[in-house]
Amino acid sequence: MTSTDSRAFPADFLFGAATAAYQIEGAAHEDGRTDSIWDTFSRVPGAVINADNGDTACDHYHRYRSDVALMKDLGLQTYRFSTSWSRVQPDGGPVNPKGLDFYSRLVDELLGADIKPWLTLYHWDLPQALEDTGGWTNRDTALRFRDYALNVHDALGDRVGVWTTLNEPWCSSFLSYTAGVHAPGRQSKRDGLAAGHHLLLGHGLATEALRARDADLELGITLNLTVAKPVDVDSAGDRDAARRLDGQFNRFFLDPIFRGSYPSDLLADVAGLGLEDHIKDGDLAQISQRIDSLGVNYYHGELVSDQPAAHPLLAQAPTNRPTGSPFPAADGVFHHPQGLPLTAMQWEVQPDGLRELLTRVNTDYAASAGTSLYVTENGAAYDDVVTPDGRVHDPERTDFLTSHLGAVLDAIDDGAPVKGYFYWSLMDNYEWAWGYEKRFGIVRVDYDTQERTVKDSGAAYASVIRSRALPRG
Ligand code: FCB
């Protein structure tokens, strides 16, 4: 292809796909693993659609070899996975060698296939025993997290070079401890804020400890970030709604990490909810450790107002439990539809938001710190159909993928140091409160037979990876 009919990716750009332990592994009680908060929460009546859980999931624990072979066939250069704390340290207690061995075998398999392992230490599955002592509202959990990070490093540090501390702490604090739609299902503004601070502290402690172990590790964190726009830029109320959303979604995490402080407007928004009681001397210095890479997860942007609107997002509550707002001080922030196409999650498809987000994160944070950016998750669920030929023809997902890869190229053209992209997800899997109903994979999983089928979107991604270029237009 000539340069006029395609857009090339930089030579060092990494193409990958992502998964998470609880969503794919299964083997929930094998080789010593004990319950995490998701094992418990998924059994709370009404918490998860069809009361599904991750007991078997994609059975990846037993099928990791063929799954890695599939990754190789797709041409993936890197694979982002997470380790399960409950497998490595059942009940948060002593190290379980059998649990670590699984990850050791997986890493060897990846390296043998020339796929770079991209390890995330925490993708939401806290050992239930630690939740029983307060979970992330307990400062001690941050210290336990550092110990867990070092235990995983003991076993894998010789072969894994990229370490992400946390996946989307916004979800594991506010969705989990304030809105109550994720494990452990608490509904408290104070608890969400305490959890958010302690997650950040755990990130800082683990980053410092891993850096001390090995200065060559590439260390980072993955945040789910959004682009918050006011419905009416001339409305002070709408602008303030956008500011509050940006504060509690983006800046709550970015500012402590990159600037060593919480934003003052956010502290004012959440005044009286106890956040400042948890911030001890030295915490912010601890949190603002240098990171090498920032993982950005992007699914859609938000158009917001201080006035209500009928919005599909509001009608999507996946459970029959009463849910709260995830934002401690944004009860009056209302999402409005932008009139864009919707995925099966009722999320609007807005690729230009990814360009805008990457450019903003670079300008406001990463550039001065010399931090590289990676899109560590981006993807779409659609109601896939298996046609009589046994295939999954999913042009909407292919469009989603290619339009967002185009947005990444746009951001690179704007000067953002975006070094890689991970599609979410390698395969259909356990989608938290939605159970198995929502399919994000570029590989279909038949949950009755565990058969894997590469969807058309998977073939399209493989072709982009092979040519290292995106066809124009
Ligand atoms: C992200 C999660 C990931 C998956 C996608 C759809 O928030 O990190 O596990 O559920 O959403």
Structure description:
With 473 residues, this protein is α/β, with parallel strands linked by helices. The protein has one domain (6-471): Alpha-Beta Barrel (TIM Barrel), CATH 3.20.20. Helices cover 40% and strands 15% of the residues. An 8-stranded parallel barrel has the order 2-3-4-5-6-8-11-12, surrounded by 7 helices. Strands 7-9-10 form a 3-stranded mixed beta sheet, with helices on one face. Helix 15 (395-413) links the parallel strand 11 and strand 12 (418-424). Helix 7 (140-156) runs parallel beside helix 9 (189-213), helix 8 (169-178) packs antiparallel against helix 9 (189-213) and helix 15 (395-413) packs parallel to helix 16 (456-467). The radius of gyration is 21 Å and the shape is globular. The two termini are 14 Å apart. Bound molecules: beta-D-fucopyranose. Beta-D-fucopyranose binds next to loops.
